[in-house]
Amino acid sequence: MEPLKPECGKEQIDVRFFGNFQVIAGGELINDSASRARRPWSLLQYLMVNRDKVVSRQQLIEALWPDGASEQPEKALKNLVYRVRSAFAAKGVAYAQDVVIYRGGNYQLNNALPWVFDFELAAGYFREAQKPSLAPGARVELDMRAIELYRGDFLAQQVYEDWVLPYNTYYRSQFFECANNALDALTDEKRHEDIEKVCRRVIVTPLRSVSTWRIWRRWWHRAKNPRRWPTTTRWPTCFSVSWE
Questions:
Q1: Residue 231: what pLDDT?
Q2: Beta-carbon contacts of residue 81 (< 8 Å; ≥ 6 apart)
Q3: Are strands 115-117 and 100-103 parallel, antiparallel or unpaired?
Q4: How far is residue 101 CA from its own chain's centroid?
Q5: 8 A C-beta contact, residue 109 and residue 13
Q6: Are residues 72 and 107 in the same domain?
Q7: How far does CA 228 lie from the centroid of its chain?
Q8: Listed residue (73, 88, 99, 109) closest to 29, CA to CA
Q9: What is the pLDDT of residue 228?
Q10: Where would a tag sit more exposed on the chain, N or C end, judged by fewer CB atoms within 10 A?
Q11: Domain region containing 34
C-alpha cells in the first residue's frame, strides 16, 4: 500500500477507525486508549467522517448528546475542542491549535493537514476492485489491500452510538463482500496462505455476525476436505477459535 504524500511540509497523520481508534502523528500516538474520556475523541471522529462538510454546533450537540444529557452543551462543546487540541499539543504537535477549525458558529476538520484514514483507503480499494474492466489478478490484490486494513469493526468500541452504527454496518458489509470475492479468486489460483490470511481477518469480526458464520462454515468444510488442500496448508491454526 503506497502512503499518501503529506501536505504542508508535515508528516502524514495516520488515523485508524477499524478496531481500536488511533491517531498517530509524527510517530506518536495522540489519543490515550486507556483513558475513559471518550467524548473529545467522539467529537474528532464525527468531524473526521464529515470532513468534507462544515458541521454546525447543533449537529454536533445532537450527535454527542443524543439524550440531551449536557445542561450547557455549547460550553461543553468548546471544552471538547480545547481538550482535542490539548491532546495534540501534549505530544509536541506544532499545529495542534489548527486541527479543528471554528468559524461562524460552525466546526470543521482542518483538511489542509495530511490526514490518512484507513476507512477511506479501504473504500478506495473496494471501489477500484468493482471496475468491470479490471483484470482478475489486479482485482484480488485490491480486495486483499482493503481486507488488510480491516483490523476490526468501524469504531468497534462505540458501535452502539447512534451516529456510528450506519458507518459500522456499511463498512462491515463492504469488508465481507471483499472477503468473499477474494476467497473465490484465491481458491481458483490455489493461494492457500492468502486464503488463511483472509480467514484470519474474518474471525476478528464479532463471531455472532451472520456473514462471519457463513464464511466460517464455507471455508471450514473446505479445510476439512483433504482432497482439496495440500498437507502444508495450516488450516487447524486458522480455525482454532471456538464457535461459541
A1: 43
A2: 43, 100, 102, 107
A3: unpaired
A4: 24
A5: no
A6: yes
A7: 34
A8: 88
A9: 52
A10: C
A11: 13-113
